[in-house]
Design brief:
heterodimer; A: 144 residues; alpha/beta; five-stranded parallel sheet; 5 strands; B: 601 residues; alpha+beta; six-stranded antiparallel sheet; five-stranded mixed sheet; 13% strand; elongated
Chain lengths: 144, 601
């Protein structure tokens, strides 16, 4: 009930505050109607997705229709979060895009093995997030 | 063998025609003169036959008959022309008588001449035959001589041969005796070689030492033959002796026998080969005994390791023996081989052990190097990854500023972007600095000595205002044990820990750090207890990982604690943390205590 009423949302797991700022800017520029919620580490990502405090209000913090996941997070890595997501039956429908600045093939392979839907390389400039957001809109986000 | 007698025909001597003509003319003239001039009218009895006799000297039958005819003619001339015919019948008879007389004489001479000729031929033949015979005889003589020469030569050669033959016979006898001698030596050598072969094989296969030595004992018996019935090898072990090996038939003592007063002691002390002819004569000397039989005599030689006698090789006999030089030689040879084999085996074991050690060492080093390589690889990967974030921010905000035209951005927004660029640049700089100090730490040599931690910490606090009141309160225990460390490394560790402790506190709180130490079993653990934000205990160990950052609310590169762990490990120590969110953290560094209690300064 709550989920259907809530606004479609993208959850961005990212510890770099600047990258979150760039992504918000990019969403606006790309004209994405989805809300952008961000958490800055793995523990908070798990808490958000489980609906634990302080994220128990699904009106304020709805289950996302897409997760953007950075790998290099403090203490709990993005891979661990991904692994956890794929163990949860209630979350398995949510596409997860790994969003990392690492071009290492082994990181790509590991993301695939853990069930990531896509591996997206972080651009060199924050402003290029706009193009990333446009691609997301065309490829992954259903309008409305 | 030159000239065949058959072709050699000496010519008959032909009477000279000139002499015949002279004789003819003279005798006819003489007769003509005598008969027709001087005795013209007389009838003389001087016979025409006389000149014919000349032909016996000059044997010419033609001359004979020519003169006969001439004389008959003269006679006819005288009878019928010159003489006065008295009585024709008488005259004719007289002339006829004369003719007959003359012809008979001529015929007689002719006959004699024919006989002469025949004789002559015979003579010649004889002579020729004689000559031939003489030639043959000569040849035979020559051949005879040759034969004699050859025969003499042969005789000489024969003599020589006989001499040589005798010599050869002598040599042959000598060789034969040498061959026999060689064969004897050869057999002995062969025996020794087979023994050595057996021993060498025993070296290759993993036989026990006692098996090899037992084989040597058997070899000694084989070489000595009937004189000996048992052999043994003993080794000194302190005040006692161990039987290393023996052939069957020697009593195996259950416990080591005393070295003192044994025959082995004498041998080892004097370091030479010796024997006891009859053991019954020397009951004072200790000797091993046989199973169910009494040993009456023993031959013994030192067994050496290097040059030092360490035991003995012994040969036993059940009858009294005066051991020969040959026996001495054999037992000493066996002892030398035993020494060699023991030495070789010892060296080989040592080599195997050393090899294993080396291999282990190589493995360890390789593993350590691999670890280092992995670490460095991880480090370089992580640092580039971490450097991208501030770069991305700097570029992004700079582009935003550049894109927005004049007045498109508010003053506050512009300042915000510029602040973020500056912060990112500062973070970049810290990353580079920390990365450099980390890689230096990994590389540099860490020499360890006693460090007074108390002194070190107080010095650091005095040097940095951020460690002093009112910005922070850091209490260091009055007495702390000295540790074995590298001073520069330890300074870096403490500095990083104190920096973290004063940094990660709630914003309105004054950092409070307590430093104390506890010592157990030669190790010193130094605690840094803070009143900071803390972290969940289950995640605490990760704090020491490279580029791990506990929180993004505080500036940090994620290298500081990794560096603490690295440096401490290189000094032979450990690090750890106990923490809980909101309850502060208790970091510790554990190092070896410096036992000389070095209290420098």
């Amino acid at each position: 009930m709550e989920a259907t009423m809530a606004r479609p949302t993208v959850l961005y797991v990212e510890d770099e505050e600047n990258d979150i700022i760039f992504m918000r800017f990019a969403f606006k520029k790309a004209g994405i109607e989805h809300g952008l919620e961000s958490v800055m580490d793995g523990q908070h990502a798990v808490a958000y997705l489980s609906g634990e405090s302080p994220y128990h209000n699904r009106q304020l913090y709805p289950l996302p229709s897409l997760i953007l996941l950075d790998v290099h997070l403090p203490l709990i890595s993005g891979f661990e979060v991904l692994d956890w997501i794929r163990t949860r039956s209630d979350l398995k429908e949510i596409p997860v895009i790994v969003f990392s600045s690492s071009g290492r093939p082994e990181d790509r392979r590991k993301a695939e093995e853990l069930g990531a839907n896509y591996y997206l390389l972080k651009p060199a400039s924050g402003l290029q997030f706009v193009q990333v957001a446009k691609n997301l809109k065309d490829g992954w986000l259903n309008p409305g | 063998v030159t000239g065949t007698p058959d072709t050699f025909e000496p010519p008959l001597r032909k009477p000279s025609a000139r002499v015949s003509i002279v004789i003819f003319v003279l005798s006819v003239t003489l007769m003509w003169w005598l008969r027709l001039h001087i005795f013209r009218d007389q009838f003389i009895t001087l016979s025409y036959g006389l000149p014919l006799l000349l032909c016996l000297w000059h044997r010419d039958r033609l001359l004979l008959w020519s003169m006969t005819l001439a004389f008959l003619a003269l006679s006819a001339v005288k009878a019928f022309l010159l003489l006065e015919r008295v009585d024709p019948v008488m005259d004719s008879a007289q002339w006829l008588m004369q003719v007959i007389n003359t012809v008979v004489i001529a015929g007689t001479v002719h006959f004699v001449l024919v006989l002469f000729e025949r004789l002559d031929v015979r003579n010649r033949e004889l002579q020729r035959t004689n000559e031939e015979l003489a030639a043959r005889e000569e040849e035979i003589n020559r051949q005879n001589e040759e034969l004699q020469v050859q025969s003499e030569e042969l005789a000489q050669q024969n003599e020589e041969l006989q001499q040589q033959s005798e010599e050869l016979q002598n040599q042959s006898a000598e060789l034969h005796s040498q061959a026999e001698e060689l064969q004897g030596t050869n057999e002995e050598l062969k025996q020794r070689e087979s023994i050595l072969q057996r021993l060498l094989e025993s070296l290759r296969i993993t036989e026990s030492d006692s098996a090899v030595l037992e084989s040597l004992c058997r070899s000694a018996l084989d070489l000595i033959g009937d004189a000996a019935q048992a052999a043994a090898i003993v080794e000194r072990s302190g005040s006692q002796m161990n039987l290393l090996a023996s052939t069957p038939g020697v009593i195996q003592p259950k416990e080591p026998v005393p070295f003192k007063d044994s025959f082995t002691e004498i041998i080892v002390d004097e370091d030479r080969t010796a024997f006891i002819e009859d053991l019954r004569d020397r009951p004072d000397i200790g000797v091993l005994q046989g199973v169910n039989r009494e040993f009456r005599s023993v031959l013994c030689t030192p067994l050496r390791s290097g040059r030092q006698p360490i035991g003995a090789v012994k040969i036993y006999s059940t009858t009294p023996q005066r051991w020969t030089t040959e026996h001495f030689r054999i037992v000493e040879w066996v002892a030398a081989q035993s020494s060699l084999i023991l030495e070789v085996r010892r060296l080989r074991n040592e080599l195997t052990r050393t090899n294993a050690d080396l291999e282990k060492l190589v493995h360890e080093r390789t593993a350590r190097l691999q670890e280092l390589v992995d670490e460095l690889e991880h480090f370089s990967y992580s640092i580039t990854h971490d450097m991208r974030a501030p770069l991305r921010a700097m570029q992004g905000f700079a582009e935003l500023l550049a894109m927005a035209g004049d007045g498109a951005l508010g003053e506050a927004e512009r300042k915000n972007y510029l602040d973020r660029i500056i912060t990112a640049a500062g973070r970049m700089d810290r990353l580079i600095t920390d990365a450099l100090s980390y890689s230096r730490t990994v590389r540099q040599e860490m020499t360890l000595h006693a460090v007074d931690t108390c002194h070190l910490l107080k010095g650091m606090i005095e040097s940095y205002p951020e460690f002093q009141m009112p910005r922070a309160r850091i209490d260091v225990a009055e007495r702390m044990p000295a540790v074995l460390a590298n001073e520069a490394g330890l300074t870096q560790c403490f500095s990083n820990l104190l920096n973290n402790a004063v940094k990660f506190v709630e914003h309105n709180q004054q950092p409070h750090v307590q430093v104390r130490a506890e010592q157990t079993d030669g190790r010193v653990r130094i605690w840094f207890e803070d009143n900071g934000i803390g972290i969940p205990q289950e995640l605490a160990p990760r704090m020491f990982g490279m580029f791990q950052r506990g929180s993004r609310k505080y500036e940090g590169t994620g290298i500081g604690l990794a560096l603490v762990r690295k440096v401490t490990e290189r000094m032979g120590g450990k690090v750890g943390v106990e923490s809980a969110p909101g309850k502060g953290s208790r970091f510790w560094v554990e190092l070896r205590a410096a036992h000389n209690g070095g209290n420098h300064g």
